[in-house]
Specification:
This protein is 42% helix and 16% strand. By secondary structure, it is α/β, with parallel strands linked by helices. It has two domains: 117 residues, Aspartate Aminotransferase, domain 1, CATH 3.90.1150; 244 residues, 3-Layer(aba) Sandwich (Aspartate Aminotransferase, domain 2). A seven-stranded mixed beta sheet has the order 2-10-9-8-5-3-4, with helices on both faces. Strands 11-14-13 form a three-stranded antiparallel beta sheet, covered by helices on one side. Helix 2 runs parallel beside helix 9, helix 5 packs parallel to helix 6 and helix 10 runs parallel beside helix 12. The protein starts with 7 loop residues before the first strand and ends with a helix. The mean pLDDT is 96.
Length: 373
């Protein structure tokens, strides 16, 4: 087992980061109520607004917490007492949306698909027809647990037609996939630093359309720390957060945003597409097959079959000994498939080295079985 620190992270977040992003963490101590942090807040939220493609009147709010903090904040803050929330769910993170809605005892309509099944816009339309009092629709853009992209743009057009708010989890898509909150009619969209933007864990952020705020204002607070109205009050009045933020992590996120904007969004997306294709082609050559091949797969995660006779735990440890960390699937895929993410600061040569290491692991396992027989 390797003793030196540092592995190539091929799990879907946190990700390997550049030296520039790491270096941004090391700076002078700063009080978050000082004007210097307000200056950082203004710069950072402006850059994130550009990445979301939000208009100048869109709010960007920073939270100290993972993407799930932003998820709960959006759901708890947006659903009126006399309205329903429709959750569109085809994987583990869609299930999390529904779980949070149930926890807050919201009136939930749950449009549930099997893992890996594609979301059909006509099903969303039928649910809205059946439940005209739905006020909010919530869905995941990239359902990471299966590696599928969901039809946010089409559902957004439908929500605008029905005058519903659309809440979108873009935690593992922002930075790698085509998403535009204005074009796609997304009213509340959240993501986190440590996925396809290549930042450090600990900060999530939410982009809110101006049309959403009058509706959010009428919702009685259900949470204290995660109430979006509180964050907007501090953002508008002081260019700050209501509670202590992850100050140095925000500096690292700004550096990651600078890298993204300098590279330009379409170029970053093209890079992800090329990386993902390289990974899939290499896996095919090794005899792997994939959980889905629908044409709606993401460009940052591959859900691949486990080799015959090799348990995930064995493959994980064998690859870890060679310097690579892969990721186990969630139920019901566990034991049959595993995940490889091409997120973060990676090179083609690193991916090629991983594929070589994977081939070694498979070969060694096959040789051990042959000797045992």
């Amino acid at each position: 087992m390797r003793r030196r620190p540092g592995y190539v992270l091929l799990n879907p977040g946190p990700v390997n980061t550049s030296s520039r992003v790491k270096g941004a963490l090391i700076r002078e101590d700063m009080c978050h109520r000082d004007a210097a942090f307000s200056e950082l807040f203004i710069r950072l939220t402006g850059k994130l607004r550009r990445i979301f493609h939000g208009g100048h009147d869109y709010s960007v709010l920073l939270l100290a917490g993972s993407g799930t903090a932003a998820m709960e904040s959006a759901i708890a803050s947006c659903v009126p007492e006399d309205g329903k929330i429709l959750v569109v769910d085809n994987g583990a993170f869609g299930e999390r949306l529904a779980e949070i809605a149930r926890l807050h005892e919201l009136d939930l309509v749950h449009l549930r698909y099997d893992y890996g099944e594609q979301v059909r816009v006509e099903d969303v339309r039928a649910s809205l027809d059946q439940h005209p009092d739905v006020a909010v629709v919530a869905m995941v853009h990239h359902e990471t647990s299966v590696g599928l992209l969901n039809p946010v743009r089409e559902v957004g057009a439908l929500c605008r037609e029905r005058d519903c708010l659309l809440l979108v989890d873009a935690v593992s898509s922002l930075g790698a996939e085509d998403l535009d909150v204005v074009r796609d009619h997304v009213d509340v969209c959240w993501a986190s630093a440590n996925k396809c933007l290549h930042g450090i864990s600990g900060v999530s952020f939410t982009c809110v359309a101006p049309r959403a705020w009058p509706r959010i204002a009428r919702v009685k607070p259900r949470v204290y720390y995660l109430d979006l109205k509180r964050y907007k009050h501090y953002a508008d009045g002081r260019a700050q957060t209501p509670f202590t933020p992850a100050v140095n992590t925000c500096f690292a996120l700004e550096a990651a945003c600078d890298e993204y904007l300098e590279q330009r969004g379409p170029s970053r997306q093209a890079l992800y597409t090329a990386r993902n294709r390289r990974l899939r082609e290499g896996l095919r050559e090794l005899g792997f097959h994939f959980f889905t091949e629908t044409g709606r797969e993401s460009h940052s995660v591959v859900t691949a079959s486990l080799p015959d006779g090799i348990a995930f735990s064995q493959l994980f440890e064998d690859l870890k000994a060679r310097g690579f960390l892969i990721y186990d699937c969630k139920q019901p895929l566990q034991g049959k498939f595993f995940q490889i993410a091409n997120m973060g600061e990676l090179s083609d040569s690193t991916l090629d080295s991983f594929l070589d290491a994977l081939a070694e692991c498979i070969g060694a396992a096959e040789m051990s079985r042959t000797v045992a027989l």
